[in-house]
Specification:
By secondary structure, this protein is α+β, with helices and mostly antiparallel strands. It contains 1 helix and 7 strands, in the order αβββββββ. It folds into 2 domains: about 5-35; about 65-150, Immunoglobulin-like (Sandwich), CATH 2.60.40.
């Protein structure tokens, strides 16, 4: 009687187990090899004391300190603030010019400019138009939140 050998399935199972073991071993080694080729990154080390957050408040103390100059004049006119130089000539202030909306215009004055002068308002019939009037010379506000009002008829 011929006896059949059952070693083929056992050999196949053993082959697959060895193959799987080799694949697992290779896959475990590859990331280490790839990581060894990369430059090392510095590890951040905390230093000092972390900053203390500023307490939040609802005060308006953080707002810039300033004051205002206000011109009232007929509607539809154009105004320019001018300053008088040491040569007694009047010079336009570049940032303080514009149309009078509702017959008035207000300009903000920075704290560093408090009390400066003399200034005046010049009123025109439009940008680059004919001059309609001039205010009397005045000084800028001397303290925070003050408003200097000027009228040009």
């Amino acid at each position: 009687m011929i006896r059949k050998s059952n070693t083929f399935p056992l050999t196949l199972a053993l082959f697959l187990a060895v193959l799987l073991g080799v694949l697992l071993l290779v896959s475990a080694l590859v990331p280490e090899q790839a990581a060894a080729d990369l430059p090392r990154r510095p590890t951040p080390v905390p230093s000092g004391t972390p900053p203390t957050p500023e307490p939040e408040d609802d005060d308006e103390d953080d707002a810039p300190v300033g004051a205002y100059i206000l011109l009232s004049s007929p509607r539809g006119t154009w105004s320019v603030v001018q300053w008088q130089g040491n040569d007694d000539r009047w010079h336009d202030v570049e940032g303080w010019r514009g149309a009078l909306e509702g017959g008035m215009v207000i300009w903000w004055v920075d704290q560093k400019d408090f009390g400066g002068g003399p200034f005046r308002w010049a009123v025109y019939d439009g940008p680059g138009g004919a001059q309609l009037g001039l205010s009397a010379p005045f000084s800028l506000p001397a303290e925070a939140n003050q408003t200097v009002g000027i009228s040009v008829p």
